[in-house]
Amino acid sequence: MKVALMSDLHFDVNGISPEETLNQRADFLAAQGVQYVINGGDTYNSFEKTITYMERLQAALPDAKVYFIAGNHEMVHDVSYEQLESPLSDLYLHHRWIDIPGTDWRIIGNNGWYDYGFASNLVGRDFAQWKRAFWIDSSIEQPMTDPERMAIVLQQVEGDLNLAQLAHKRVLFVTHFVPDDHYIRYTSDNRFWNMANALMGSPRMGVLLRRYGTSVVLFGHMHIHPEPLKIDQTTFYDQALGYGTSRLHEWQQPDFMTEWQNRLKIIDLDKKSIKRVDEI
């Protein structure tokens, strides 16, 4: 069972025309025999544009299932907090799960959020005020504080993981925000980045996922291109594509399609020990 993992395509920021790449991407995924396509958020700075694109990708891949969650960039336009918590599309996987027929695998999704836990090294800082002044998330409206929102996320995720455990399912979990402090960079010379760590995610998410023995975790948000990381029974995949602009050039390849293929991770869930397809 081949599953393609990807995140943070940022089509609008990167100036990529979906018409130019959608069929190319669909053809490539079909040629690899991919049966599930999972996207970890930040496809557009618009929830409506992301839904439209994912529905078009699904139509171009009739032999596969396409699912996505929202990243913080999707939350900036065209959607409210209440809408994000509702089933806006059959492809939208937030606080939902999908069982893969004929296997013991369950795919669970949750957009995630942050609680400033990755910036616990900074004492007495007003992270909410800093966010309002410097971060794109300042325009995202929510009826609670960031730690309160993350507490709701953790409650949702634990409930979904508990149901999977009771059903004896192995879990592929997808979220947008960073779930483990192995990915967090603390510096002595960049105060902006140290403050931004507060908005990366929550260390409590990784603790929760490992406690339930989650097999695979896909996330994005940090455009750092690390290798897969296995901690205890859990393998973490940060498959963010990131920015390929003149101001922020994070790509390692010269064009979008080549970079996308390079960042795409295809894993085979039929194997007793999960392997990347390029290792099989």
From TrEMBL:
Single annotated GO MF: hydrolase activity
Domain of life: Bacteria
Membrane-crossing residue ranges in chain numbering: none
Any matching Pfam family: Metallophos
Domain Calcineurin-like phosphoesterase: 1-224
InterPro entries: Calcineurin-like_PHP, Metallo-depent_PP-like, Phosphoesterase_putative
UniProt-recorded name of the protein: Phosphoesterase
Species for this entry: Levilactobacillus bambusae
